[in-house]
From TrEMBL:
InterPro entries: DIOX_N, IPNS-like_FE2OG_OXY, IPNS-like_sf, Iron_ascorbate_oxido_reductase, Oxoglu/Fe-dep_dioxygenase_dom. Belongs to the iron/ascorbate-dependent oxidoreductase family. This is Gibberellin 2-beta-dioxygenase 8-like. It comes from Cucurbita maxima (Pumpkin). Residues 230-331 form the Fe2OG dioxygenase domain.
């Protein structure tokens, strides 16, 4: 029919109006600041929802999307991700504290991911947050993308994507800690402020405590990250994964490693988070009592690869939507990342350099290369780059 997309060997999306950009896919996903004539918008669905559906009506197009391979979310393994009870960390008994530290150390070296219970963040706070988060994402797309709330941090999909494999079927707000307390940041969503502030404080404390354990395990003062992490770079991200009509063809969130020291994540009960273990994707089964912790690129670098920053993703779901909230522990821009011990396999770099490199790569080639760009010796472990 005339509304079907054109089939072309080089995948391309229909034009969406007069937004100027070199990447057509980029045009397609970005905020509707221009005049997007072809876009049908319903109340809360981002415009891509409709366009993408049209696009995927063609079977040949589907094959192009998958390069003729199996559907992208089909590989799965059973996950026995470590579940660590953090009660031990606060124990007056040194043996118990050490046993808990050892578990955290083991999980961070072997998995780069673990879940924690008795983490000190009240369930009531997490459910209040979830409620507010649902209200926030529930407003029309137009409003989320143009009202400037939460520091203008709304993003739908992957604005930099140049290929559908790089596109995430999700929307997010990305809020620097420095903005969390600013009333002006919330507009009419002022109820969100109190809960965001409480959560940011609680997650920050937990992240610092876990980072402290990990640096102590490598013979350093547990405060060293406190000295270099500050509010200007740490942030909270609210994620929402709407129901996806073609879950085999796009990811909820494309495979990536986190560009921070450490991430704390609260996921709802929908499932879909997976991590790379060996060469298999394994599911991180939702545990309502637990928070998910993962090591980021910078801690892998600081630890001379002792701790692993592993690739993870969220698969799209055609039945259930999903919400999550993540706290990212980051160093201030100009602090050197350093190393637990010399010689380091990485050259000296700051967080500012790392972010710039990641941004440049994403802009030029469509994806993040990550830590391997900073390696001095070219040892290819194949476990920490994105592709
Ligand atoms: O939503 C999730 O479970 C994962 C989120 C994530 O990986 C991220 O925000 O970096
Ligand atoms: Fe992540």
């Amino acid at each position: 029919s005339s509304s079907s997309p054109q089939l072309k060997p080089n995948f391309s999306f229909p034009q969406t109006g007069n937004i100027k950009n070199t990447s057509r896919f980029h045009n397609f996903c970005r905020k509707p600041t221009g005049n997007i004539e072809n876009t049908t918008m319903t109340d809360s669905n981002p415009p891509l929802f409709h366009q993408y559906e049209l696009l995927l009506q063609s079977k040949a197009q589907l094959q192009l999307l998958n390069n003729g391979n199996q559907q992208i979310n089909s590989v799965m393994g059973e996950c026995q991700l470590p579940l660590i009870d953090l009660t031990g960390l606060e124990s007056s008994n040194e043996k118990e504290r050490r046993a808990c530290s050892r578990e955290i150390f083991g999980a961070s070296t072997e998995w780069g991911f673990f879940q924690v219970i008795n983490h000190g963040i009240r369930t009531e706070l997490l459910s209040r947050m979830s409620k507010e988060q649902m209200k926030l994402f529930g407003v029309p797309f137009e409003k989320k993308s143009t009202s400037g709330i939460l520091d203008h941090s709304y993003r739908w999909g992957t604005p930099t994507a140049t290929h559908p494999n790089q596109f995430s079927w999700s929307e997010a707000f990305h809020i620097p800690l420095t903005k969390v307390s600013e009333a002006a940041c919330y507009g009419e969503f002022i109820n969100l402020r109190e809960v965001m502030e409480e959560l940011a404080t609680a997650m920050s404390k937990l992240a610092r405590s876990l980072a402290g354990v990990l640096v102590e395990c490598l013979g350093h003062r547990k405060e060293i990250f406190d000295d270099i992490c500050d509010e200007s770079t740490c942030f909270l991200r609210l994620n929402h994964y709407p129901i996806c009509p073609f879950p085999g063809d796009v990811s909820g969130l494309v495979p990536h490693t986190d560009s921070d020291f450490l991430t704390i994540l609260h996921q709802d009960r929908s499932g879909g988070l997976q991590l790379m273990k060996g060469s298999q994707w394994v599911a991180v089964n939702p545990n309502p009592e637990a928070l998910v912790v993962n090591i980021g690129d910078l801690l892998q670098a600081w630890s001379n690869d002792t701790y692993k920053s592993v690739k993870h993703r969220v698969v799209a779901n055609s039945m259930r939507e999903r919400y999550s909230i993540a706290y990212f522990l980051c160093p201030s821009y100009h602090s050197p990342i350093g190393s637990c011990r010399q010689p380091s396999p990485y050259r000296h770099f700051t967080f500012a350099e790392y972010r710039k490199q990641v941004r440049d790569d994403v802009e030029k080639i469509g994806y993040k290369i990550g830590l391997s760009k900073f390696r001095l010796v070219n040892i290819n472990t194949n476990s920490n780059s994105n592709n």
